[in-house]
C-alpha cells in the first residue's frame, strides 16, 4: 500500500467522523486504517479540531479512558442556532399557514432536509450529556425532526403509533388526553421497541396543551424507561399551564390572527439568551 499523505488522512478522517456523529473512534482504528503512528494521528486530530472550531463546523472531542478515542458532534454555535431558528420563525409567520383550530401548517417545512437537519442538531446539542439510548416520537409529523436528532445523537428512533400494527408484534396500548379539548385517544408501542432501564429523549413537532407529550412520558413509565428530556419544534404560549412541565421548545407561538392566517411566532427565550451570552463573550 502506498504511503498515505497527511492531507489524504485529514480528508478521509473528516468524512468518517462527520458521517458517524457522536460515535467514538479509537486511535487504533485510524492507525490500522492509515498505517500511521498514534502520535501522528493525535497531531492530525488537533489540526481537525482547530479547523472545526475556526469555521464553526461542529465539535471534535477527545474521549479518555479504555474505550476512549475521538468523536464528532454536530453542534451549532449559539448565534448560528438562534439565527437558524429565527429564519424558520419568519417562514412559519407568512400569511396563509394557520389552519382551523389554531394549528400551523408545517408539512412543507418538515419536508426540507436542510431545515430539519439543523433543527435536529440544535435539539441533540441540548441532550448530549444526558446520553439517551433512543429518541421517541409520535407518528407522523414529528418523525423528520426526531430522526435528525437521533442521527446527531447516533441512537435509534422509536415511533409511537396511534394504533397497534400486526407486523410489530405484541404492543402496549395506553389512553391519554390529547389537545386542549381533552379528547381521550390511544397510543401504542411494540413491546420489542425498547428495553427496561433505557433512557429516552422525546421529540415532537408541535405542542399546545402537552397531552401527547405527557402520554409518551406515561408510555415510557410502562416500559420502566427514564425520560431524560422532552423537546418540541413549536409550542404555543397558551394555555400557559401545560399537562407536562419542563418541555423545551425551539419556537413559541404567541397567538394567531385567523382573519389573515398569520401567527406571531418567535425563537424560544433560551435560544435568544444563549446567543446573547455568546455575543458578550
Protein described:
- This protein is α/β, with parallel strands linked by helices.
- It folds into 2 domains: 6-73, Arc Repressor Mutant, subunit A (Orthogonal Bundle); 78-280, Rossmann fold (3-Layer(aba) Sandwich), CATH 3.40.50.2020.
- 36% of the residues lie in helices and 27% in strands.
- Helix 4 packs across helix 5 (113-125), helix 4 runs antiparallel to helix 8 and helix 5 (113-125) crosses helix 6.
- The chain is globular.
- The N and C termini lie far apart (48 Å).
- The relative contact order is 0.12.
- The model has no long low-confidence stretch (mean pLDDT 93).
What is the helix fraction of residues, given as a range? Answer: 25-40%
Task: Briefly note the structural class of the backbone.
Answer: alpha/beta
What is the level 1 CATH name of the largest domain?
Alpha Beta
**How many helices?**
8
| Residue-averaged pLDDT | 93
What name does CATH use for the topology of the largest domain?
Rossmann fold
Q: What is the gyration radius calculated from CA atoms? A: 21 Å
Architecture of the largest domain, according to CATH? Answer: 3-Layer(aba) Sandwich
- Strand arrangement within the widest β-sheet reads 6-5-9-10-11-12
The largest sheet, given as strand count, sense and whether it forms a barrel, is: 6 strands, mixed
The count of DSSP E runs of length 2 or more, i.e. the number of strands, is: 12
Distance between the termini: 48 Å
